[in-house]
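JOB MANIFEST
job_type = single_chain_structure
chain_count = 1
residues = 329
[input]
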Amino acid sequence: MPGSDEFNEAYYIAVNGTALEEARGPKLSTKNSLRWLCEQYFQSAEYKRLDQRTRHVRKLIIEHMWAEPLKKDSSRLFEDMPIAAITAKAVRVLRDRKAEKPEAANSRTKALRAIFAWACKSDVELMLTNPARDVSFFAQQGDGYHSWTEDEIAKFEEKHKIGTKPRLALALMLYTGQRRSDIILFGRQHVSNGSLKFTQFKGRKKKPITLEIPVHPKLQKIIDASPVGDLTFLVTECNKGFTAAGFGNWFRKQCNDAGLPHCSAHGLRKSASARLAERGATEKQIMSVTGHTTSKEVSRYTKAANQKLLAESAISLFDDIDERSEGGK
């Protein structure tokens, strides 16, 4: 109505060339819609207990799903879908729109499972069932991160000699089998009686895993010969501890400098497991180092090493055939 406060607000906004929606702030969600449910989840203790990086990534994944149209030629978005209308079919649609990127598709399914599982809790009761629970993940393609070969490890060591920070980083990952989020926190305070004792960073809030790993003599030699920080072995140029992302970027440069652009920090965790497998370590022994609670991931890490050992033992059986053949001549 002309003359009303609403009219005057819209008029002056238009005169100033500002869109009405922008001036009034972000879009308000409709109650009991998917977006509204997700916003409730973001305020929950369940979400707030997650690692900061995990929260950030999950929120991005969810917001991208909001912006998906219900149908390819529709102006309606998934964010406005009533939660009562969300079925397993709707979850599969969101998953399948990322089918060309299986990891991204699985991340969508995982995020929706978490939200709906929270919404079904007895103290929340925003949903009766979890429609994402029975939506399967896409099978993982390939073996994930490249596992370093012995030649690649030797090439890195040739470029980065003992006494340098890159060599120390390599040794910490290779002789402990830990993730970058763990090795950037390692310091002298974690070493006692020749062992490294720590709680793994991943899952520390939900299912903490504490490990005690002997410090290999080669690792100790490299630590003793390297410049280290006061609280962490690895420090930045400003003598501060690395963040996981910062370390990843820095180590990527060290790999590039060594002519190994296809290698990564995570690949060394796989290489450490493979090295142990090639030397006859059992899955339980490897799990005691890596901290895995099931053998599924360890089996994937060590598949190539186990295949090699089995092939060697199988081919050696030809020796008996040759000996019998020679004896019969």
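[summary]
The two ends are 111 Å apart (CA to CA).
The longest strand covers residues 195-199.
exit_status = 0
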